Write the C-alpha cells for this entry.
Amino acid sequence: MSKTMRIAALATCLLLIAARPVTPSLQGEYQSDCAPNDGPAFIIILPATVQQGEFWLRANAPLARIAGRWSHVQEMGVRPGLAMIQLCRKTPNLVCESPSSGSFTIRGKPGGTLTGSFEAQFGKAQRQSYRFTARPARLAEPVICG
C-alpha cells in the first residue's frame, strides 16, 4: 500500500470516529430504597436538563448487589431482581414516564463511586443512551423500609 493510500485510509478512519455521536454523561447519586412490600432496593438519581428532569434507575435488590446489568420492566412488581428506568419531572407535581424498553449497567462497589451506562426508548423519540457516574447520597437519616 502506497503512502498516499495509507494517509487516505487513516483520514477516512478519523472521519468515521469523529462522526460517531458522543454519548452524553450524567452525574448523580445512589442510595438504598424500598421495593414494593418493603423489600430491599436501590435507586440511582441522575439529573439531566431542566426540561428533561431526572432519570431514575431502580431495582429490587440490596445495594450490595448493585453491580451488573439490569433490564427495564414496564411495571415494577415485588419480585426481587426487577428493574425500572423512569424519567421524572418535578414541576409542578412529580410525574414519571417509563420507556417502552431499556437497560442499564452498573460498575463499582457500594460506598464508592459507581460508573455505568443506560439506554431507553421513550415513545417514538430516538433511543437515548447515556453514561453516568454516581456517588453515595448524603442522607440526613438512613432509609428504613416497613
Q: What stands out?
A: The two ends are 70 Å apart (CA to CA). The chain is about 10% helix and 40% strand. The chain has one domain: 23-136.
